[in-house]
Specification:
- The chain is an alpha+beta fold.
- It has a domain at about 115-255.
- It contains five helices and five strands; from the N terminus they run H-H-H-H-H-E-E-E-E-E.
- It has helices at about 1-35, 95-100, 125-140, 155-160, 165-190, and strands spanning about 195-200, 210, 220-235, 240-250, 255-260.
- Strands 1, 2, 3, 4 and 5 form a five-stranded antiparallel β-sheet that branches.
């Protein structure tokens, strides 16, 4: 009976050793595949935890960390707003450019001066009124530059007048006299000239006539009207008028050529 007992105990021990050995083999192979150090092959009885417990594999050091699941603040992108108009004053030359756009072209596509026409000008067109308003603005402010585009053009004068050096006569006689007359009219309005109001111009249409070539030292014909009147209202309420001595035409438009007298 003792022999049977020992035989039974030896068989049980053998079976336990086989199970332990098998578990160790499985753990060894598993750790080898995962790149982990081999587990201890101590007997199962020395293990405080079950032999078959398997921990989560450690991530290799070279692998990148997993993305965080925490919400990430979105980048703030300001919407593009429409450009705000600048409050800066218009650049120098902007006003003269606008005036130039309002005036008819004096040159053709090839750059050559356009010829005179026999079209009678209107003394009530919006363009004529704007042109005379610029003359009035020059008188009220004393700034001759405001009215230069209202004066008879040099490119036209060079074709019309049969004189030597028309450019010199234009600058040193006609334009110089015009500048003088603008200053004199401003002075006549008094100290409150800039507060005066331009009421308009009276053109005696019945006096308009066609000046044939040679009648006034001219090579080309043009319409002319004398003694128009510029009307102003002073700050005091009193009205005052000034003579606009001569308007002559170029291509169907009236231009100032003499403001006060012919000299």
């Amino acid at each position: 009976m003792d022999a049977d007992l020992f035989s039974s105990i030896d068989g049980q021990l053998m079976r336990e050793r086989c199970v332990t050995f098998g578990a160790c083999v499985v753990a060894l192979l598993s750790s080898h595949c995962r790149g982990e150090p081999a587990p201890s092959v101590a007997p199962a009885r020395a293990l405080s935890a079950p032999a078959l417990a398997v921990t989560a594999p450690a991530r290799p050091a070279s692998a990148s960390p997993s993305p965080s699941l925490q919400p990430v603040a979105a980048a703030s992108v300001a919407p593009r707003s429409a450009p705000v108009p600048s409050a800066r004053p218009a650049p120098p030359g902007a006003e003269s450019a606008a005036v130039a756009d309002d005036e008819p072209s004096l040159l053709g596509p090839d750059g050559a001066p356009l010829p005179q026409t026999e079209e009678r000008p209107s003394a009530s067109s919006p363009r004529f009124n704007r042109r005379l308003q610029r003359v009035a603005d020059a008188i009220l402010s004393g700034d001759i530059e405001k009215a230069r585009s209202s004066f008879f053009p040099l490119v036209a004068y060079a074709q019309v007048k049969d004189v030597q050096k028309p450019e010199r006569d234009y600058r040193y006689r006609l334009m110089a006299n015009f500048e003088r007359d603008v200053r004199e009219y401003k002075k006549a309005l008094g100290r409150d000239a800039e507060r005066a109001q331009f009421l308009g111009v009276t053109v005696p249409e019945e006096r308009v006539e066609w000046m044939k070539p040679g009648k006034e030292g001219n090579r080309l014909g043009y319409f002319r009207v004398l003694r128009s009147r510029l009307r102003f209202r002073l700050a005091s309420g009193k009205q005052q008028t000034f003579e606009l001595t001569s308007l002559i035409s170029w291509r169907g438009e009236w231009y100032v050529v003499h403001l006060h007298g012919f000299e």
